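Exercise 7. Predict the joint structure of the components listed below.
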Amino acid sequence: MRYMPGSEIIGKEEREAVNRVFDNGGILYRYACDESKGEVSQVRVFEKLLSDKIGVDYCHAVSSGTAALKTALIGMGIQPGDEVITQSHTFVATVEAIIEVGAIPIITEINETLNMDPDDLISRITNKTRAIIPVHMAGVPAQMDEICKIARSYDLLILEDAAQAFGAQYKGKQIGSIGDVGIFSFDYGKMLTTGEGGLIATNNKAIYHRAREYSDHGHEMNPLYPRGKDTRTRGGFNYRMMEIQAAIGIAQLNKLDMAIERQQENKKILIKGISSIPNIQLRRVPDGSGEIADTLIFSLADSMKAKRFAESLNENGIYTKNLPDAIKWHFSGTWDHMLPQFAIYNGEDLSTLWPISKDILERSIAIPIKIKMTENEIHYIVDCINGIAKLI
Ligand SMILES: *Cc1c(COP(=O)(O)O)cnc(C)c1O
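Solution:
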C-alpha cells in the first residue's frame, strides 16, 4: 500500500542515504557516533537542517509524532491534573499524549477552517488550563493570530501539532515555529517521511533540554562526562530516533520544496475546476496561510449527500483521505474507548458534545492531492466531482 505524500517520492536518494550509513561503519545509534573519529550523527545533521528550515533555535528528533507530543508536554512542564485544550478534529494521538502525561483533555469545536475555533477555545479555559494544542489539520494552518492572542491574555503555553503540516506557512512563518513548541510527525502518511519519526521544535532552551532528557532516560548530555557517567535530575523514557531514519529524512528534506510546489500547483488546477459548483463548499483557509496542499476538502449540504458523494467518488476510482472513511480516528465525538475515564466525559453521549464539529465533519469529503499527478488525472477528478455534484 502506498500512502501520500512523502512516501510517494521515496527513491534512490533515500536508498543511497541508508547505504551511506552502512558504508560509514553501520552505526545505527545516534549517541554511538564518535566525533573525534570524524563520525557525524545523521540525527544531529537532520536536526540542524530542520532548525534552519523551520526557523527555530532547537530541534530534537524522536521516534514518532506521538512521542514528540508527549515529550513536548513533559518539556513544557505539564503535570497530572492540568487541563490541556485541543480540538475535536485531530488524530487520536493528540489526545493520547495528553492522557499519557496525566493531564485532562479539554476539547474545542472546530469552525469551517476544520481547525480550532478560537471563540470556542475561550469558553473552555478554566483556572486549571495550562496549555493549548492547536492542530494544523490536513496541511492548513490554524488561526494562529487569534489563538496566540488568547494564549497571551490567559498566560497559557501553545504546543502546535503540526504533524500534518510540515512545510506549511502562516503569515510568513513556518508552522511549528509560532507557538512555544511545535511537533511534527514523519510517519508513512506525512509530508516528509522517515517511516516512523517525529520532531520537537522550539526556541525555548529549557523546554528543549527537558524534552531531550525525557526522550533519553533522563540523560543530560553533560559534556564533562562520558555517557555512562552522565548526569541526570529527572526520569525519562526511550523515544530516540535512529540513524537510518534521519538519513532517510535528510534525503526527503531535499525534495520537500519541490513536492509542496507540485501539490500547490495541482490543487490550484483542481480548485479552479470545481469552484463554480453551486452545491459544494470549499474548506475555508485562514488569511495568510501557505498551505502544503496535500488535501482538498469540501463539504455538502448534509451528511447523507456527503456519504453518497463519497460513494460515487469511490465507484469512479477516486479515494478519500480520512473524511469520511476514517472519521472515527479523527473526531473526538467517537472516542468512547478513551475519554470516559475522565469525570467530565463519563456517562456522556460523546456524539452530542461537539455538535458543530460533528455536523461539519460528517458533511466533509477529503481527497488526497498527489505530488506526481498528471494533468489528465487532475482533470479526471475535476470531471468526476462536477458530474457527481449535478446528481447529488
Ligand atoms: C500522524 C499524527 C500524529 C502522530 O504521529 P505519529 O508519527 O504517527 O505518531 C499526531 N497528530 C496528528 C494530527 C497526526 O496526524
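Discussion. The mean pLDDT is 96.
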